[in-house]
Amino acid sequence: MGDAWYREKVETLYTPEQIQARIRELGAQITRDYRNRPLVLLCVLKGSFMFAADLARAIDLPLRVEFLGVQSYGDDTTSSGVVQITLDLARPVDAEDVLIVEDIVDTGLTLDYLMHQIQARNAATVKICALLHKPARTKKQVSIDYLGFTIDDVFVVGYGLDWAQKYRNVPEIGVVTSPTGG
Ligand code: PRP
Q: Catalytic annotation on 97?
């Protein structure tokens, strides 16, 4: 998986099979919890595009998919919590049940900002589904309603997560073991 550079510097953390198995469980749980109610799946770009695509197929509800582009100001590895919306919702979400889909919760600053943003748009309910959570880096506690995996404080890449904007397309989640260059 990945090119020679990737294989030299990245170790597998979760295989595509492990990721898909966990997503099937999350999808079944979400399907049960919302009991046939319509749901807005809110994919936070860019990192969540792959997770949201697979999660959507694992949920058996009348689903609407929306996209929100965000960019956090900060250096390459830490977010500052100041979030810029680069692509806004195409439709309003007032009075609707919204599930925010994130690839990773690191400091929690991005999700804290997004929760407030979506609540301010008068959604009926706002819940969070995150594939990965790195509790060691928490700055802002956010309550994750549906969580794929809890991970150590490591630099993860693949399955939507980038390394200097590359390798989002790798179908596994890997840990960068020698993070020089990209
Ligand atoms: C990642 C991820 C979250 C955020 C989490 O996005 O998708 O949105 O960081 O970090 P936090 O909990 O510390 O706020 P990133 O800024 O890397 O952008 P991307 O999704 O476009 O890769």
A: no
